[in-house]
Design a protein that fits this description.
186 residues; two-stranded antiparallel sheet; globular
Amino acid sequence: MTKLGKAFRPTHSSPLFGVAGWSNSGKTTLIEKLTRHFAGEGLRVATIKHTHHKFDIDMPGSDTARHRAAGAAETAIVSGSRVAVIEEIETAGEPALESVASRLNPSDIILVEGYKAAAIPKIEVRRAAVAPEKLLAQNDPLVLAIAADYEVDAHGKPVFDLNDIDGIAALIVRTLGPFDRVRQRA
């Protein structure tokens, strides 16, 4: 494992790697492809997505929405195939990335979408159709590379085509690996 990889492990030892960029740059699509890639390699992958928008995962009138509306600070919904926990945090403020990551079960890798300013290694995503508000790579030494669908000034960093999942995955493995393979330990 590289020194960089050791520096960015939350308390439960799952390494974090970020995918950052501005709205509609392709972050979610890249996370989806990387997740499919690493899961296909037999790794346990977790993801964290940051949003600046208020969101709701339960439908108005659903049992969990009714629990929350009644004043529950946390609501869990459980089935034979899925568990979700909804926690009201408006008075507590947004939790730090490390705090969110520490709540997840141990994984071989946690892919993080957003969190542009987080102190984790990351790749910046750029698309020609989306004018960047501010380029990240030139001012953030933790942006290790850029994934783009056009030629970019990479400020001396590697550039990957947005569809070069094998190349991007190899960068992640060089940065954080080798992975311990949580599934084999369990």
